[in-house]
Prior knowledge:
Layout: H1 4-13, E1 20-22, H2 28-36, E2 42-43, H3 46-52, H4 63-76, E3 81-84, H5 93-106, E4 110-114, H6 120-137, E5 142-146, H7 149-152, H8 160-174, E6 178-180, H9 187-196, E7 201-204, H10 212-218, E8 220-224, H11 228-247, H12 260-267
Parallel strand pairs: 1-8, 2-3, 3-4, 4-5, 5-6, 6-7, 7-8
Helix pairs in contact: 2-4, 4-5, 5-6, 6-8
Amino acid sequence: xxxxxxxxxxxxxxxxxxxxxxxxxxxxxxxxxxxxxxxxxxxxxxxxxxxxxxxxxxxxxxxxxxxxxxxxxxxxxxxxxxxxxxxxxxxxxxxxxxxxxxxxxxxxxxxxxxxxxxxxxxxxxxxxxxxxxxxxxxxxxxxxxxxxxxxxxxxxxxxxxxxxxxxxxxxxxxxxxxxxxxxxxxxxxxxxxxxxxxxxxxxxxxxxxxxxxxxxxxxxxxxxxxxxxxxxxxxxxxxxxxxxxxxxxxxxxxxxxxxxxxxxxxxxxx
Length: 270
């Protein structure tokens, strides 16, 4: 069910005194677990969601599974939910707008939408269409426009900052609420982007990235874990499964391990 109040609350989290930390979830169980640790909002990782459904990351996940994931997570959490919808799973702005409307109806109050290697014109059209749909539904959807210039090396390195700034201005004018520039780690570049975009800047946890405290000082308002937590969980699952398949032994739970009872308690009555 759409929730304008949670949308308002999510926008406010980007204006608060503290950096908004998003430990990205990939299903309802991981989302509820992360919420229980004090998360002020839940964001999804497109990679983790895709892998959980048996698809590779990269706009391959069928839209019905995107919606099912949103509905399942929204059912078990009480904090704002923002979904990473990659490039919107379509190059048709109207189709992306319809998806955004369905997500809003499911209770989602924010989305990540990326340009990737596609034309910035296309992302502008998608953002504008989503903004109109959200207005029609009476929800101030937080549209986080992701610029992949640094992440994908879309232009030569000396030109990346200027290109990112140019795209950020265009996406802002199209209706973006925030700007996400994954892959940028240089403090001077981060400060330049934060100071120029007139929108909350989202950074991605990445090797070489300054500390959270330093990012806040540079003007970053939001820091995402991305797929790192999902990858860590799968890495641990691989190790446990390999050990079991090798000798049939179940490893004794480590101190502080989540129990069957713990997870049931988290999800009971939700």
